[in-house]
Amino acid sequence: MNKARLTKQNKIRLAVLLLIPFVLGGAVYTFLYLVPAFPCPVRHMTGFLCPGCGMSRALGEMVHLHFFKSILYNPLAVISAVLGIGFYVQEWFLFFGSRKRFMPTNKWVYIILGIIFLAYCILRNMPVFSFLSIA
Ligand SMILES: [Zn+2]
């Protein structure tokens, strides 16, 4: 991207792209190291695991590059991180003028992912699939 094409909208986009790692890094550091762990309100009130149960532990393991342990705590955290990083990198490519998108644009991919998230939420609360309820 040359300087002549750096419109006000692109400047805002660049600022957001540059700020995202700092904001996310600060949030991860704050929740993992500064704020004491708190129980999941869904689990506390209902006794059932929600899709997010185990996410903070999974994130903590990801930060320490223990990806297998992270998957065991909550595979949705890993899927979400991969998607988030993919979209972030794609935004940089688009910012620098690339027209090719490498992240899926088909809505069915995300509908199926939503169904997988929902199925995981249901299955991890069933005794037969107790191996999913590590959280
Ligand atoms: Zn939960």
Write the topology of this structure:
Blueprint (H helix, E strand, L loop, with lengths): L7 H27 L6 H6 L8 H9 L3 H7 L1 H21 L11 H17 L12
Helix pairs in contact: 1-5, 3-4, 3-5, 4-5
The protein binds zinc ion.
Brief characterization of the structure:
The chain is an all-alpha fold. Helix content is 64%, strand content 0%.
Can you describe what's shown?
There is one protein chain. The chain is mainly α and 135 residues long. It has one domain. It is 64% helix and 0% strand. α3 runs antiparallel to α4 and α4 crosses α5. The radius of gyration is 18 Å and the shape is globular. The relative contact order is 0.11. The mean pLDDT is 87. Zinc ion binds next to α2.
Descriptors for this entry?
single chain; 135 residues; mainly alpha; 6 helices; 0% strand; globular; binds zinc ion
Q: Into how many domains do the coordinates divide?
A: 1
Question: Taking Cα atoms only, what radius of gyration do you get, to the nearest Å?
Answer: 18 Å
Order of helices and strands: HHHHHH
Shape: globular
How many helices in DSSP terms? Answer: 6
Residues in helices, as a percent range: 55-70%
Give the mean pLDDT: 87
N-to-C span: 45 Å
User: Which band does the percent of strand residues land in?
Assistant: under 5%
**Major sheet, described briefly?**
none
Low-confidence stretches: none
Distinct small-molecule ligands in the complex:
zinc ion
- Can you count the beta strands? 0
Structural class: mainly alpha
